[in-house]
Amino acid sequence: MIQQIQATITGYGGRACTLFSALNSETKVLIFGAEADFRVDRRAGCIVLTNDPAIPRDSLFQESDLKAAITAFFALKSGYASDAKTPRMAFSERAARANPEQSIEKDGMDSSGPRYRIADGVSCSQMAALATCLYASRADTVDVAVKMAQTFRHFGHGGIITI
To answer: What would the CATH number be for the domain defined by 2-156?
Structure first.
């Protein structure tokens, strides 16, 4: 199944914007499709992510989510799709400026894991990409939980498993 994602971010470098992407839940690939002008209205069929509490949304991205979002970005960047060949994340030409990699610097490790420094000029589109990566990583977790629940239901109805 393909999930269309609309991430609208305000308050960072550059102008407020909306970043459109798609997540394939079967292959686990996230494609950033296009950066667009800021929009409040939901495009049909899209999951809406935003840091603006005034916008109707499916998920609110907050500053406290930033470390998890960066961790999700690097996990997707270095990961491979379910075919073990295709990268898990790609930016189209129309979304290339949203790639946050140049605005994030690794700053060592501490007891809670890697530390990161973010450039003062990080753009709204780059933050939208990070919010989208966090959503994609959480969607994987939900997908795994749903599959596990389906397996338990199967067992509950007398299903068996062979080893």
So the answer is: 3.30.420
pLDDT tens track for 66-111: 999 999 999 999 999 989 999 999 999 999 999 999 999 999 998 8
pTM: 0.86
* CA distance readout (Å), 58 to 53, 69, 70, 135: 11, 16, 20, 10
**Domain segments of the chain as ranges:** 2-156
* Cα gap 134→56, rounded to integer Å: 19
Torsion, Cα 56 120 79 23, to 10 degrees, reads: 20
The beta-carbon contacts of 139-144 under 8 Å, at least 24 apart in sequence, are 139/3, 139/23, 139/25, 140/28, 143/25
Low-confidence ranges of the chain (pLDDT < 70): 140-152, 154-155, 159-163
14 φ/ψ sector (left φ>0, alpha ψ -120 to 50, else beta)? left
Q: What are phi and psi of 56, to 5 degrees?
A: -60, 130
Q: Which residues neighbour 109 within 8 Å (Cβ) at sequence distance 6 or greater?
A: 115
